[in-house]
Specification:
The protein is α+β, with helices and mostly antiparallel strands. The protein has ten helices and eleven strands. The strands form three sheets. The protein has a six-stranded antiparallel beta sheet, with helices on one face. A three-stranded antiparallel beta sheet has the order 6-5-8. The chain has a two-stranded parallel ribbon with strand order 1-3. Keywords: DNA-binding, Transcription, Transcription regulation.
Length: 295
C-alpha cells in the first residue's frame, strides 16, 4: 500500500507537536511522516496498523513509531463513519528537534537506541503505559520548558522499558507520492464499507480509478499482504470485539463483521487467530472470570 505523506508543522513557539486528536475532523488514514510519534490511546478498542503489523488494540495502547513508518489506528466506534474521533494523545517530534547531535550525548545512549528500534514501531507494557500516559494527558496544557521536560521524561521511560518490536524485520515501506492520494482514498473506502459483504476488490479499484492488477501489485509490494488478506484481518478484528462484548451467535457475529457466509468466516478466523470463534470467546470468558476472582 502506498502511504499518504503528512507535512507536520509545530505551532509557533514550539519545537514539537503535542495534542489530543479526538477534536480533529480527519479520517483514520494510513499515513507516514518524517517525525517520530508517540501515540497513547487511553480508551476504546480497534485495530492497530504499524508497518506490516496488524493487531487489535485495547484501552491503554502506547506505541512509538519511527521516522516515515506508516501507521494508523482504526477505532471500532467509528467504523463506517467519515471521521475517526477516538481519543488519543499524540507527540510528534523530529530526530533533530533539539539539535543534530543532542541524542548523541552519552547520557542519552538508551534513548538513542530506542529511537533507532522505533523504525519498526515499539509497543510498551502496562506499567510504562500508565506512567507515560499520565504525563501525556497533561502535556497539551503545559508550556515552554515544562512541556519539553515532560517529553524527555516520556522518552526516558520508553527507553527503560525497551518495548516490543511490531513490524517484521524485513519490512520496507514502498513510497510513491504520485499514488498516495489513491491509496488514501482506498483505505478510507475500505474502512467505510468494512461491514458490507458486498465490498469487493473491483469496487475498491473503481473507487481509485486503477486496474485490478496494478492496484494489487502496489498493495502487496508495500504491505506484504493482498487486499483480501487486509480486509479479512480488519473484519476479524471487528468479530473479536463482538465475541468479547456481546452474546451474539457466531452466525450473527460473522454477518455483522462483513462476511457473507459462516464457513468463510470460520475459515478466515481460524487462519488469523489459530482457533475457532467459539474457542476465542471461551478463552476470553475464562480469562475474564479468572481476573474477577478476589485476591
Amino acid at each position: 500500500m502506498t502511504i499518504a505523506f503528512e507535512k507536520l508543522v509545530p505551532p509557533p513557539g514550539h519545537s514539537f507537536r503535542c495534542f489530543e486528536r479526538s477534536a480533529l475532523e480527519t479520517p483514520a488514514k494510513w499515513h507516514r511522516h518524517p517525525e517520530l510519534e508517540i501515540t497513547f490511546v487511553p480508551y476504546g478498542t480497534g485495530t492497530r496498523l504499524v508497518g506490516d503489523h496488524v493487531a487489535r488494540y485495547t484501552p491503554g495502547d502506547l506505541v512509538l513509531s519511527g521516522e516515515n513508518l506508516p501507521h494508523t489506528w482504526l477505532s471500532d466506534d467509528f467504523v463506517g463513519k467519515k471521521f475517526d474521533r477516538h481519543i488519543a494523545y499524540v507527540i510528534q517530534f523530529s530526530i533533530d528537534f533539539l539539535g543534530a547531535t543532542f541524542f548523541d550525548a552519552p547520557e542519552l545512549t538508551d534513548v538513542r537506541m530506542a529511537l533507532q528500534k522505533a523504525r519498526r514501531g515499539l509497543l510498551f507494557g502496562p506499567e510504562t503505559t500508565a506512567k507515560v500516559g499520565e504525563i501525556m494527558k497533561r502535556m497539551p496544557e503545559e508550556q515552554g520548558l515544562t512541556q519539553l521536560i515532560s517529553l524527555l521524561e516520556c522518552l526516558n521511560l520508553l527507553a527503560e522499558d525497551g518495548g516490543e518490536v511490531l513490524a517484521s524485520e524485513g519490512y520496507t515501506p514502498g513510497f510513491d507520492n504520485a499514488s498516495d492520494w489513491r491509496i488514501d482514498k482506498a483505505c478510507n473506502y475500505i474502512n467505510e464499507h468494512l461491514e458490507d459483504p458486498e465490498l469487493s476488490h473491483a469496487a475498491i479499484c473503481k473507487e481509485v480509478d486503477m486496474n485490478p492488477s496494478s492496484f494489487s501489485r502496489m498493495f502487496k509490494r508495500a504491505t506484504g499482504r493482498t487486499v483480501t488478506q487486509y480486509v479479512s484481518e480488519l473484519r476479524i478484528g471487528i468479530a473479536c470485539r463482538l465475541l468479547m462484548e456481546t452474546g451474539d451467535s457466531i452466525l450473527d457475529v460473522s454477518l455483522k463483521s462483513g462476511f457473507d457466509n459462516l464457513s468463510s468466516f470460520n475459515r478466515s478466523f481460524r487462519k488469523i487467530k489459530q482457533m475457532t470463534p467459539r474457542e476465542y470467546r471461551s478463552t476470553f470468558l475464562e480469562a475474564n472470570k479468572t481476573s474477577a476472582l478476589p485476591v
